[in-house]
């Protein structure tokens, strides 16, 4: 016999056998954790951002290039995407953001672009490509976490 739990998007129903019902309290919070995909070719940046998000209770997936990131975005269905502007492999973060917004015009996926580029032109261009926010590296853990929470809260409305 199975029990069905109704979970938040992007999950529908998960059937849990009664025999593992005692672990429900440990499993359900991990399943309900907001999922964030980080696409950044810098291992150090990925690690720092991932640790910050994991400490705050987020489930984190990482990708080192645009092609892998796009594949993981479709497969993993994250709630939020952290996207570096400069990526290897021919697709920039701007291009990837544009691709994702063409597929998701309702903006159901939160996108935060990050980069060391700090000109008003870069900020404006990121927003015009469909990003919800633009953060200039380096940023503090507090600013980063606040920005993620802010864009996720906007999409819950």
What is the compact description of this entry?
The chain is of the alpha/beta class and 157 residues long. The chain contains 6 helices and 7 strands.
Structural overview:
The protein has 157 residues and is an alpha/beta fold. The chain has 2 domains: 32 residues, no CATH class; 123 residues, Response regulator (Rossmann fold, 3-Layer(aba) Sandwich), CATH 3.40.50.2300. Helices cover 45% and strands 22% of the residues. It is built from 6 helices and 7 strands. Strands 4-3-5-6-7 form a 5-stranded parallel beta sheet, with helices on both faces. It has a two-stranded antiparallel sheet with strand order 1-2. Strand 6, helix 5 and strand 7 form a beta-alpha-beta unit. The longest helix has 16 residues. The radius of gyration is 17 Å and the shape is globular.
């Amino acid at each position: 016999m199975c029990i069905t739990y109704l979970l938040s998007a992007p999950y529908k129903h998960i059937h849990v056998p009664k025999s593992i019902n005692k672990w429900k309290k440990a499993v359900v919070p991990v399943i309900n954790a907001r999922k964030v995909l980080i696409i950044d070719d810098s291992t150090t940046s990925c690690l720092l951002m991932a640790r910050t998000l994991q400490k705050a209770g987020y489930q984190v997936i990482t990708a080192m290039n645009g092609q892998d990131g796009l594949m993981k975005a479709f497969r993993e269905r994250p709630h939020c995407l952290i996207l570096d502007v400069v990526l290897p492999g021919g697709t920039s973060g701007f291009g990837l953001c544009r691709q994702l917004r063409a597929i998701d015009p309702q903006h159901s996926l939160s996108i935060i672009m990050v980069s060391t580029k700090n000109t008003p032109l870069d900020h404006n261009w990121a927003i015009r490509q469909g990003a919800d926010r633009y953060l200039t590296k380096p940023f503090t853990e507090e600013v980063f976490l606040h920005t993620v929470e802010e864009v996720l809260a906007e999409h819950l409305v």
